Automatic annotation (TrEMBL):
Belongs to the short-chain dehydrogenases/reductases (SDR) family. The lineage of its organism: Bacteria, Bacillati, Actinomycetota, Actinomycetes, Micrococcales. Gene3D superfamilies: NAD(P)-binding Rossmann-like Domain. Residues 4-178 form the Ketoreductase domain. Coiled coil: none annotated. It holds the Pfam family adh_short_C2. This is Beta-ketoacyl-ACP reductase.
Length: 236
């Protein structure tokens, strides 16, 4: 198996942390970003980066390239939510979520593409969400930012596909995280009723799909949206 240099944004908790652990387990050279520059899993290099600041993203890549080599796999995972109903949503609630989740992914992918184009190889993985295409009440900002990643991946595929670079979207559904664990049991049961699989996913189940889409086995998959949602969104 080829060892790659992998960078995951927002790799200090939740799905990003699990993705980083999976790449470490596979023997790759792994770096994660967090705003504090701390909190990544054992075996990974953790660097400080704020995806809303292009200079901060550039500095993080420069550090990773110096310590681990050019980034061959980039996973744009950093994201925030500011859920509220449309009528109550301030413009800042909308623009700040897009700035992190969508424009943040653009900044990261643009910086990663430099090395990928030079190497004529790259794997871009954008972490979306089932609500990107399925929708979610109170999530006009979040679902807009996550559905836009599909257009980004498909445009990247058309632009960079001939250079050995793939771009794909992984769209998780409900995942067992601190956030879902804090929900009242009745609410958890209600959510599970709407999921054909009848359960939440583990973060590891998402991580394994991300690792596969970044592997040599998936070299001919690009512009795809892969749902990891137990059938909740049915690919929509």
């Amino acid at each position: 198996m080829t060892v790659r240099t992998v960078l995951i944004t927002g790799g200090n908790r939740g799905i990003g942390y699990a993705i980083a652990e999976e790449f470490v387990r596979r023997g790759d050279r792994v770096a994660v970003t967090s705003r504090s520059g701390m909190g990544g899993p054992e075996g990974a290099l953790t660097v400080a980066a704020d995806v809303t600041d292009a200079a901060s993203v550039d500095a993080a890549f420069t550090q990773v390239e110096a310590e681990l080599g050019p980034v061959e796999v980039v996973v744009a995972n950093a994201g925030i939510t500011k859920d509220t109903l449309l009528m109550r949503m301030a413009e800042e609630d909308f623009t700040s979520v897009l700035n992190t989740n969508l424009t943040g992914a653009f900044r990261v992918v643009k910086r990663a593409s430099k090395g990928m184009l030079k190497a004529r190889f790259g794997r871009v993985v954008l972490i979306s969400s089932v609500v990107g295409l399925f929708g979610g009440a109170g999530q006009v900002n979040y679902s807009s930012s996550k559905s836009a990643l599909v257009g980004m991946a498909r445009s990247l595929t058309r632009e960079l596909g001939a250079r050995g670079i793939t771009a794909n979207v992984v769209a998780p559904g409900f995942i067992e995280t601190e956030m879902t664990a804090a929900l009242p049991e009745a609410q958890q049961a209600e959510y599970k009723k709407s999921i054909p699989a009848g359960r939440f996913a583990s973060a590891d189940e998402v991580a394994k799909v991300v690792a596969w889409i970044a592997s040599d086995d998936a070299a001919y998959v690009s512009g795809a949206v892969i749902p990891v949602d137990g059938g909740l969104g049915m690919g929509h």
